[in-house]
Amino acid sequence: MKKIIIFSLCFSMLAGILLLGIYFSGSWMLIDKRDSNIINQDVYTNENKLRRAAEQGDMVAQNELGVLYEKAKNHTKSAYWYNKSAEKGYSLAQYNIGVAYENGRGVSKNYQKANDWYRKAAIQGYSKAAFNLGMLYFEGKGVPQDYRKSREWFMQAAAENNTMAMYAMGRIYYYDLGVPKDDRQAIVWYQKGVDLGSMRARNSLALLYSQGGDGFYKDRVKALSLLIASACQGYVVAQNNLGVLYSDGAEDVIADHKKAYAWFSVAASNGLEEAIKSQRNIAEKMSTQELEQAKNIAIKYIEKYPSPINEDDTYKSNTECKYP
């Protein structure tokens, strides 16, 4: 769903550090379930009652039934029930059918219809739909590319505490995507995401503090803390970046080849192919005994820090991966 863009920056005068950043590309693709205020109602947790309620026209039950079919990989039926619920005005279902149309799941891919359904849900205040609508305008899917409109929808989503939108706004300002480059504004938006536990914003803010910029100072200690928190959440880019940082160290960060190997191993285990070569390279710098110790650390890390199976940008941020 997302493309990995490699960019390098000089982490110190002595060592060039390769850091990875995920360029936000593509919308939020996960289906959404029930509202929290009805989550304990028996009708929505009993499949037979759910089916009867859906057939009788209950829009929440219709969306939930669509979710059940989605999980069973029956996308045609899931789209059918999402559409039934969406037509009654249920924002979660409008978002879900929008996702279906954007990805061609159970229906023919149709960006214009995805746009229409996202808009209906976004107008009702559903932040994921607002973010996805912003992405459609950003990428020009089903509509002419329009950075201004994409920013408007991102800002609406961000106002509703959507951390992906905050992260997107940070990257817009950092990479001058439709606006003049503004590192300070990038930091403002990344910090908003960090404050709410965004793994992506934590990684991106770490990159800015690793180099310093217009109006803010270089702070390698803060960068390290942010990367550790993001890597803890399972963000594969941050896991790789920690490996890079520990490979050679820089100023206030002490090199640690064992930790570097372990984090490269985690990133590789979580699907980042670029980390495999780095893992091999760092292994060559260690003795047999050190490598064995590094492998033992890696085994523990791989078990402890898997990438989240969903797209929860704030995964574990309020438990074991708190920052600061």
From TrEMBL:
Domain of life: Bacteria
Listed Pfam families: Sel1
Protein name from the UniProt record: Sel1 repeat family protein
Keywords on record: Membrane, Transmembrane, Transmembrane helix
InterPro entries: Sel1-like, Sel1_AlgK, TPR-like_helical_dom_sf
SMART domains assigned: SEL1
Regions crossing the membrane: 6-31
Lineage, broadest ranks: Bacteria, Pseudomonadati, Pseudomonadota, Gammaproteobacteria, Enterobacterales
Signal sequence bounds: none
